[in-house]
Design brief:
The complex is a heterodimer of chains A (100) and B (286). With 100 residues, chain A is of the alpha+beta class. In chain A, 56% of the residues lie in helices and 16% in strands. In chain A, α1 packs across α4. In chain A, 31% of the residues are buried. Classes of the chains: A alpha+beta (100), B mainly alpha (286). Chains A and B meet through α2, α3 and β2 of A and α2 and α4 of B.
Chain lengths: 100, 286
């Protein structure tokens, strides 16, 4: 279930400020109170695709002597996130009403 | 940033990931980037939490294969467009001051073969290129496409490129074999221009080969031409082929007049039906 919403979750995690892959994983865990635990490596194919689609950009930086790819959400990414939020709210409201 | 070897890729988790990426055909810059990001991640996180290297490599391959194969198809279509424009310009340049008698070749069998290839190959290349473009446009909307669909797209792309290259070689051969009928400088310019135009086709073929190297594991069927058409037709491939050949025959009969009309009205449909029989399965037409 989580996989189907990974794009939106990653965009939301990057909305406030840029981050690298591990930083995104940490934010997802913190903001979900440790409920969202997925194989951490799976965030990278998602990030690469979001970059190809122009929803995030990235650049290499140096951190503790290591090369680090830092991702930043683009304007198109923010617009896409807005759409995903609206879709999710509609869906979750409907689910709540049906399930009670 | 300058090229830096990824540390720790000889042994351990990164070594395993390196091997798995190699196994699914991800190499070069793409693999280096994945390994560098994994190395940075694992400096802070746990290997067990990062995921199985084989599954992760396949996840990357499933997405990259779709992107690389559709991009290669678009690139090939661009290269073929360039070749087609050069082909047309070369033909106009060559026959501007008269055409060659079919029997005036230096070596008649080669001349006849080149003349036949000049008629058949561009048409097959055009048809395969259009089919590849139609499939690429559809697949680019998908995040991950079935491996069978990507394989079909690559076959169409490669067929379009191969017959496009054959068209250019046939043109150069025709110009040389019938050189007596044309001005010397036009023969040299036409033949050498055609051979130069092979370069973009070779580059596109290389891109297609690299794209095919990335192996998707997504299940699903390859589909056929009916999946690529913008209008719904009855799924009877031979009926569509014969209908097309018949329509073409009528068109050529009307356009060709009494002299060339009947000949073209027979030759072209035979070529269409023959091409459909020979390449139909390979190009996903039937």
């Amino acid at each position: 279930m989580l996989k189907g919403h990974l794009d939106a979750l990653v965009l939301a995690a990057l909305e406030a400020e840029p981050a690298h892959g591990y930083g995104i994983i940490r934010r997802l865990r913190q903001r979900s109170s440790d409920v969202f635990r997925l194989a951490e490596g799976t965030v990278y194919p998602t990030l690469h695709r979001l970059e190809r689609d122009g929803l995030v950009t990235s650049r290499w930086t140096l951190a503790n002597g290591r090369r680090r790819r830092v991702y930043r959400v683009t304007r198109s990414g923010r617009e896409a996130l807005l759409v995903r939020r609206l879709e999710w709210r509609t869906f979750s409201t409907a689910m709540q009403e049906v399930l009670g | 940033m300058r090229h830096v070897p990824v540390p720790g890729t000889r042994h351990g988790y990164l070594g395993q990931l390196w091997k798995e990426l190699e196994a699914v055909g991800i190499r070069g810059r793409a693999r280096e980037r994945i390994l560098l990001e994994a190395a940075d991640h694992l400096a802070e996180g746990e290997e067990a939490e990062f995921g199985d290297p084989r599954e992760l490599a396949q996840l990357f391959a499933d997405e990259l294969a779709t992107q690389a194969t559709t991009r290669a198809a678009f690139g090939a279509f661009g290269a073929l467009g360039l070749a087609a424009a050069g082909f047309a310009a070369g033909w106009i340049l060559l026959v501007l001051h008269g055409t060659a008698d079919i029997t005036s070749a230096s070596f008649l069998p080669a001349g006849l073969l080149a003349a036949f290839a000049l008629i058949a190959c561009p048409q097959i290349s055009f048809a395969a290129g259009l089919l590849a473009l139609a499939r690429a446009v559809r697949l680019q909307r998908l995040r991950v496409a079935p491996a069978a669909e990507l394989a079909l797209l690559a076959r169409r792309t490669n067929a379009a490129l191969a017959f496009g290259a054959a068209s250019l070689v046939a043109f150069a051969g025709y110009a040389v074999d019938y050189h007596a009928a044309f001005a010397h400088r036009r023969v040299v310019a036409g033949a050498s221009g055609a051979l130069v135009l092979l370069l973009p086709l070779a580059a596109a073929a290389l891109a297609s080969r690299n794209a095919v190297a990335v192996r998707s594991s997504v299940p699903g069927g390859a589909g056929d031409m009916f999946d690529d058409l913008p209008v719904a037709l009855p799924r009877r491939p031979w009926l569509v082929c014969l209908g097309l050949a018949g329509a073409l025959a009528l068109l050529l009969l009307a356009a060709g007049g009494l002299d060339e009309g009947p000949r073209n009205a027979v030759a072209e449909p035979v070529l269409v039906v023959g091409g459909f029989a020979a390449l139909g399965r390979r190009l996903g037409l039937r």
